[in-house]
Amino acid sequence: MTPSxxxxxxxxxxxxxxxxxxxxxxxxxAAGWRLTEFGRVLDVYGHHPAPEKLSEIVGRTRxxxxxxxxxxxxxxxxxxxxxxxxxxxxxxxETPDLLxxxxxxxxxxxxxxxxQPIPGAIATLDAIKAAGGRLVLTSNTLATPSDxxxxxxxxxGLLDRFDDVLFSGDLRVAKPRREVxxxxxxxxxxPLERIVHVGxxxxxxxxxxxxxxxxxVHYNPRREATARPRVPDFADHxxxxxxxxxxxxxxxxxxxxxxxxxx
Length: 263
Hints:
Layout: E1 12-15, H1 27-44, H2 51-72, H3 78-89, H4 98-108, H5 121-130, E2 134-139, H6 146-155, E3 164-167, H7 168-171, H8 178-188, E4 195-199, H9 202-211, E5 215-219, E6 233-234, H10 240-253
Parallel strand pairs: 1-2, 1-4, 2-3, 4-5, 5-6
Helix pairs in contact: 1-4, 2-3, 3-4
């Protein structure tokens, strides 16, 4: 079969990372390591905040940043997140090297969670590539920069499977903002209507993609009821390649409806 005859030829398949291709791992282990190392660094500098206070401030700061990103598409500044923690503790963020050391802890804590590919995800990526689809990773980042993500993906054997990777930390804007999906289209040289974005978050992944003029597929492992019943979903990664091929055929028969962005 020639490349142009492959069922997904000419299509770009964009996939979310966390919760779609990778598990979140042991979040408690990551959070515990972050707090322990924050405490050690601060102790060296002569600051001894109560563990409970440090935990509350760090947790609240991360939660607020995540909420703002998810609802507005604003990309949190990692240095600002750590600086805000120091401000609440009454510690001068201009103390030489202090912010730098805390940033190193903050941005690498995710590795302590030991995230792993969701079962079937790697085989699914290979099947999409074999069907002629262009594979793009489109991921929001909160505290973890793109270089740490790339290190993790390389260790898990995932990075080389993608034709392109886009991280919100590099784009300076996050899903659900349409600029993210526009960047996918521009870098792929693919019209928005020939992009399918796959993700687990109904707001950032589904509504974001549809609002930008792309197709969307919802990873819904628990088969939960959704307010977007006309959006195709799947619970097992083994279902995705055939679903994409079916969607391709339906799209060829009927152009995408932009009015479905909030079904």
